[in-house]
Model the fold of this input.
Amino acid sequence: MPLHRFYVPPNLYSAEDKAKLAEAITDIYTKRITAPIPAFYVVVLFIDVKQEDYFVGGKPTKDFVRVVVHHLARQFPNDERKLVFMDMYEAALKPFTKDRGLNWEVEVSDGDVTQAWRENGIIPPHAIGDREGESLWLKENKPVLYGSHP
Done:
């Protein structure tokens, strides 16, 4: 599951902006990467940080977006794939950051935590190399029991 946390000043984005940005991010994982994942894996959170609590360089800010992404479902096999992903990600963010004159930072954590991850108590099929289970989760777009699940 990729978890995307956007730390933003209050009211920076409208509900419509948030929905469009979440959809653009989900599309990366479901339509644009080589090994798609189910849409339900993609979680996007918008966390408002009051100006008196938000500092960059020791000064309060109202035009900075901090994005922290934690990849659980897939890890990058090499630096080239990391760069390809980051280019897609930056393109998805552009209408909501650069095009609005905002400053932003993106951090993607890519550690392998597959043995310490469950969806509704079920080990994700890719964590144990079950391709049929992966296909089932992709088709159903939710965690369901599958053949080799212990």
In short: The radius of gyration is 17 Å. The first helix runs from residue 15 to 32.
